[in-house]
Specification:
The protein is α+β, with helices and mostly antiparallel strands and 391 residues long. The chain has two domains: 1-23 and 362-391, no CATH class; 29-358, Neuraminidase (6 Propeller), CATH 2.120.10. 14% of the residues lie in helices and 33% in strands. The chain is built from three helices and 26 strands. It has helices spanning 2-20, 92-95, 361-390, and strands at 37-39, 60-66, 77-82, 88-90, 109-111, 117-120, 129-134, 140-144, 150-156, 162-168, 183-188, 194-196, 203-208, 214-219, 226-230, 236-239, 244-245, 258-262, 265-269, 278-280, 290-293, 296-301, 308-314, 319-325, 333-338, 347-349. The strands form seven sheets. It has a four-stranded antiparallel sheet. The radius of gyration is 25 Å and the shape is globular.
């Protein structure tokens, strides 16, 4: 009985220590430097990355998906990179919104301009809402929406007070092979009011102007092309341009250009449709990641199946590498986003040792069980040896 009690005490103490005591970090938000930079190489896929709710990141410069397809021990991850250090965190709230229609990918997600929030939607839901994750605390605020089956956030206003999203009465599938389209609606996060955008039917993309007063709206092919909507008056004007809106950060910081993506690469047009477009012959089929200067954009390039780079291109010529991404053959990368309000004059810095935070609870429990069993085995063997010696 004494031995059994001693063994139980050892096992219980060991397991509790590993499960309950944080192995690194904590619930307090990460605090780094005030400067913003990208590491010159992103960290590899890791099973040991903590969730942002367990170890908040503070503010993030990047959000992306790492890995595609669900395998025995691997699953697609939504990953946040801190704005000022090599700190990586998973966004479990986005991962939990994945489903069969997205092959296990994290649900729709969009990083705010200041890098302090992420808004989440859903491809197939019976309870339409947009959830906003506070990256400084890990808290999640849910905003109920009018009836819809699919809710896809497509753009943040520059001040972070509103989110434009696509609403559809049917589920959407990111692997259907076509564009995801819907009715464009703007949600005011403070009031909870969801306002349909005038002329916002059959829309595939949108981008707020730098002052938040207008919304560039990309309609699906054959449905009206590109338009600019004045959100106060509801006035709509068409833009005669070739190409499609190059993402939620398509509008240049000074409001003088809109980035479009098409067959020749990237082009940049005056929002009123006048003037001669500027061109940048780069194969940026996914659009731009943001403006890293008044006349410089960041794009994701994949020169081969195993490597990718984020590169900044000046509109008048010249380029500079920002970040390299490797091991894509094993763990691909997708839906990469940069915090548009943090990347003006974005620089690269030497990558440090990745900080993945405290081990996820499942790993802590697993380690506790393994260590507990190991200790139990040692105790049993020692007791047997002592018994044999006495005999």
């Amino acid at each position: 009985m004494v031995r059994a009690g001693r063994l139980a005490l050892v096992l219980g103490t060991s397991a509790a220590a590993l499960v309950l005591v944080p192995l690194a970090g904590g619930a307090e938000a990460h605090r780094g430097t005030t400067s913003v930079a990208l590491p010159d190489r992103l960290a590899d896929y890791s099973h040991l990355t903590a969730d942002v709710t367990d170890a908040p990141v503070g503010r993030a410069v990047a959000l992306y998906q790492r890995g595609f397809g669900v395998e025995l021990f691997d699953s697609p991850q939504a990953v946040l990179l801190a704005a000022d250090d090599d700190v990586y965190r998973r966004l479990g709230a986005a991962e939990s919104r994945g489903g069969p229609e997205s092959q296990g990918d994290p649900g729709p997600m969009l990083l705010s301009p200041d890098g302090r929030q992420v808004v989440l939607g859903d491809h197939d839901t019976g309870s339409p809402d947009l959830a906003v994750v506070d990256l400084g605390s890990g808290d999640v605020a849910t905003h109920g929406l009018p009836d819809a089956r699919s809710v896809i956030p497509v753009a943040w206003s520059p001040d972070g007070s509103r989110v434009a999203y696509l609403s559809d009465d049917s589920p959407t599938n990111p692997y259907s092979g076509g564009l995801i389209v819907g009715d464009l609606v703007v949600l005011d996060l403070a009031s909870g009011e969801a306002s349909p955008v005038p002329g916002g039917e059959d829309v595939s993309a949108a981008a707020f102007s730098p002052d938040g007063a207008e919304l560039a709206v990309q309609h699906a092919s054959g449905s009206g092309g590109l338009a600019i909507v004045d959100l106060a008056s509801g006035a709509v004007r068409r833009v005669d341009a070739t190409g499609s809106l190059a993402g939620p950060d398509a509008w240049s910081p000074d409001g003088s250009l809109l980035a479009l993506v098409g067959a020749p690469g990237l082009s940049f047009v005056d929002p009123d449709g006048t003037g001669v477009p500027l061109t940048l012959a780069r194969p940026a089929t996914d659009g731009i990641l943001g403006w890293t200067g008044s006349r410089e954009v960041a794009v994701l390039e994949s020169p081969d199946a195993d490597d990718a780079t984020i590169t900044a291109y000046a509109l008048d010529g010249g380029s500079r590498p920002l970040t390299a991404i490797g091991d894509l053959g094993s763990y691909g990368i997708g839906r990469i986003q940069l915090a548009s309000g943090l990347i003006a004059d974005l620089q690269a810095r030497p990558a440090g040792s990745p900080d993945h935070g405290p081990w996820p609870p499942a790993f802590r429990i697993g380690v506790a069980l393994v260590l507990g069993l190991a200790i139990a085995l040692v105790v049993v063997l020692v007791d047997r040896r002592r018994g044999a010696t006495k005999a």
